[in-house]
Structures are given as C-alpha cells and as structure tokens.
C-alpha cells in the first residue's frame, strides 16, 4: 500500500504539514517495503488551484490513501472521485503519522474543509 503524507520537508522526522495544497512536498511511503519517496509540491505557489493540482499529483503517484491536516472542497472532490481515502492527522512527525495510520488511529476525512483563496489571501 502506498500512503501520501503532506510534509514540511524530506525525511521521516519532518513534520506533517496540515495544508494539503500548499504543503512543501509529499512523502509517498510504501508500507510493504518501508521505502519513502519525496515529491515536490509544485502547486504550493500557484495563485489558484493548488489543492486540485496536489490531488492530481497524489493520483499520479498512485497512492492508496493520503494523510494530511485539512483538505479543501476542490481537492476533496478530486480525491473522492479517485477512490483515494483521506485521513486527518495533527502536528506530528511523518513517522508518527505513518504509525498512527498503520494502527488505524486516524479519522477518515469524509467532508471537505473550507475553501481557501489561494495566494491572494
């Protein structure tokens, strides 16, 4: 299983970034092998559509689930239409987020959070 985690940096000791569309990068962890790949989130500086582009990046990475803090309506709809489940996690390291996911201790996000105004805020 491949898990995408919104991250502030590259390394399992980096912190989870609560901002899905504006996170620095994504850790894509293969739970079978334990390997992690880090994907730069090019959408983080977009003036609009960051969440949608970030969601597409997760689809392109062929993840089975995403762990993040919040997800706006556009990104949430993209994820829901792709059958990728999204889980909420707090301010913890990527390793802790992964451990919580594996232990089924994260809440699935079943409703989108508020929309953001992109870089024009």
What is the strand and helix layout of this fold?
Elements: E1 2-7, E2 25-30, E3 36-40, H1 50-60, E4 65-68, H2 73-81, E5 85-88, H3 94-102, E6 107-108
Parallel strand pairs: 1-4, 4-5
Antiparallel strand pairs: 1-2, 2-3, 5-6
Q: What are the secondary-structure elements, in order, as H or E?
A: EEEHEHEHE
Rounded radius of gyration (Å):
13 Å
How many β strands by DSSP? 6
- The main sheet orders its strands as 3-2-1-4-5-6
Please identify the top-level CATH class.
Alpha Beta
Low-confidence segments, ≥5 residues, pLDDT <50? 117-121
Query: Pairing-aware structural class of the strands and helices?
Result: alpha/beta
Determine the mean pLDDT: 91
What is the count of helical runs?
A: 3
Describe this entry's structure for a reader.
- The structure is a single chain.
- Helix content is 24%, strand content 22%.
- The protein has 121 residues and is an alpha/beta fold.
- Strands 3-2-1-4-5-6 form a 6-stranded mixed β-sheet, with helices on both faces.
- The relative contact order is 0.23.
């Amino acid at each position: 299983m491949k898990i995408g985690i919104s991250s502030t940096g590259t390394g399992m000791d980096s912190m989870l970034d609560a901002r899905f569309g504006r996170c620095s990068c994504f850790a894509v962890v293969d739970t079978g092998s334990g390997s992690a790949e880090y994907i730069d989130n090019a959408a983080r500086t977009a003036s609009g559509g960051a969440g949608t582009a970030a969601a597409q990046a997760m689809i392109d990475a062929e993840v089975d689930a995403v762990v993040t803090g919040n997800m706006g309506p556009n990104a949430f709809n993209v994820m829901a239409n792709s059958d990728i489940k999204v889980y909420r996690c707090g301010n913890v390291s990527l390793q802790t987020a992964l451990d919580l996911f594996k232990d089924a201790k994260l809440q699935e996000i079943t409703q989108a959070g508020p929309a953001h105004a992109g870089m024009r805020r």
